[in-house]
Amino acid sequence: MVYRPKLSGIYLAYAVQALILFQVGYSIYIGDFFLAIVGFFGFFLTTVPHIVSRRTDICMPWEVNLLIALSLYLHVAGHISEYYDLFAPYYDKIAHFVSSITVSVLGFAMVLIVDRYSGLRLTRPMIVFFIVIFTMALGAFWEIYEFVFDNLFGTQLQHGLEDTMYDLIFDLVGAVIIAVVGNFYLRRVEKEEMARMFLHPGQ
User: Fold this and answer.
1) Which tens digit of pLDDT belongs to each residue from 7-33?
2) Are residues 18 and 97 in the same domain?
3) Is the backbone peptide bond immediately before 89 cis, with ω within 30 degrees of 0?
4) In a shared domain, residues 94 and 155
């Protein structure tokens, strides 16, 4: 399976990164420097795949980079431009859904790469199960972060048990979708070939 990146897709990912920087600039303009720092950290996270690509054999497809940038943009813009409040409660659920899709894809890539280099010889059901568990674990960690942040700084990231449960449900839906898609492809393509999608050519 040979992966050929599309320049239009790469530029689209760059455009979303630029939108994050625009949010950072807007936050500085309105004098909210704390959110500006949060937004800039979100932008930095979008550059991590590029940093990893330069230092390792791992090279994420542009679609994955776009998902990472989009999920981080949704959260950054949700806070800085107050989209969480303006489009409540739907915006939060969409952001969680996109993020869960992103995390699931990253989990899928990670388990394929680890299996390739470690010789674990994971079976297809084990890989599918890992995608769901990995996504739900990070989803739970995110909810803990929101809970701790609210209690320490008096923010309102969480809005009760129902909000938390719906967030986790949307996380689960995203994880199951990627698990099903991953299972579909693993039935038709060798996992070693799938792993090459996330590695530099020739690896």
Assistant:
1) 777 899 999 999 999 999 999 999 999
2) no
3) yes
4) yes
C-alpha to C-alpha distance for 150 and 160, rounded to whole angstroms = 11
- In the chain, % helix, strand, coil (3-state, to 5) comes to 80, 0, 20
Tokens of 138: 């990070």
3-state secondary structure of 58: strand
Domain that holds residue 167: 82-203
- The tens digit of pLDDT for each residue in 33-83 reads 999 999 999 999 999 999 999 999 999 999 999 999 999 999 999 999 999
Q: How many domains does the chain have?
A: 2
Q: Domain check: are 106 and 157 in the same one? A: yes
**Structure pTM?**
0.91
Amino acid at 34: F
Residues 51 and 120 occupy one common structural domain: no
